[in-house]
Design a protein that fits this description.
265 residues
Length: 265
């Protein structure tokens, strides 16, 4: 038993406990000392970056779950010619790094993007939002949907359709069947995939590096502190905070979802 547990213990120690302990110690070793951790909450710049990161991650999670749930259930329940090709297209962003996702958003909503050209032709005003918070949100959603929709489709396949038929035979509307049968059945998968979606958005760097030139989100602040300001201790403190929040969300989601959830992502 101990031999079987040993690989997990070694992996957890080498890739989680030791790096997090090292980050925590480095975070308190700078000129600010341990007050670097307090500065994340008291310094306006760091705190606003933390709020912006958590806010856009939460919005990304909600939007991704709504879109993926509707699309995933539909694609799993309705087989039609081209279904497999459509699913493959929806999951294509899995193969792209965050930088490519950001570049695609620029091609769509940047200064020379398609949306800008269409809006200029229709209204005379060029609509550009790739470098705004909404552009970053769009990139995160595009990046997160493939990870969520596969989990929803796998969970939908396990739902017993007889429960829905029984509800309809008792006079339940489609809306009540969705709320009382389908959503509760998908709840563990939605919690699990939502937590992974949130954690991915919190730590996403490539998309933020491409699009967040005017936005302070935590991954960009860490990058700036580490490379441009050479403030390694503050970068470590921010990284520790980012890791701790992500771990807490994943842990709570795992507890809420229970052990019946399908593997996400």
């Amino acid at each position: 038993m101990l031999l079987l547990l040993m690989p997990t213990v070694l992996f957890f120690t080498a890739f989680f406990i030791l790096p997090m302990c090292r980050l925590f110690l480095v975070g308190g070793s700078g000129s600010m000392g341990w007050s670097a951790y307090a500065a994340i909450l008291t310094d306006t710049g760091y705190f606003n970056a933390l709020l912006a990161t958590l806010g856009i991650s939460a919005a990304t999670t909600v939007a991704t779950l709504v879109i993926s749930s509707i699309a995933g259930v539909f694609l799993q329940r309705h087989k039609f010619p081209g279904n497999a090709a459509l699913v493959a297209m929806l999951t294509l962003p899995l193969a792209f790094p965050g930088v490519v996702i950001g570049f695609m958003v620029i091609m769509l909503a940047g200064r020379q993007g398609l949306i800008g050209s269409v809006s200029e032709a229709l209204t005379g005003e060029r609509l550009v939002f790739a470098y705004s918070m909404f552009g970053l949100f769009m990139g995160y959603v595009y990046f997160s949907i493939p990870r969520t929709i596969l989990t929803v489709m796998a969970a939908t396949e396990k739902l017993d359709p007889r429960l829905e038929e029984a509800a309809r035979s008792l006079g339940a509307s489609t809306w009540r069947v969705t709320l009382d049968v389908i959503v509760p059945g998908l709840k563990p998968a939605l919690i699990s995939s939502g937590a992974i979606c949130f954690a991915t958005a919190v730590g996403a760097f490539g998309t933020a590096f491409t699009l967040a030139t005017r936005i302070n989100v935590l991954p960009m602040v860490i990058y700036t502190e580490f490379t441009l300001s050479a403030n390694i201790s503050m970068a470590a403190a921010l990284s520790f905070m980012l890791g701790a929040i992500t771990w807490l969300v994943l842990s709570l989601a795992r507890t809420a979802a229970g052990s019946t959830v399908a593997a996400a992502g």
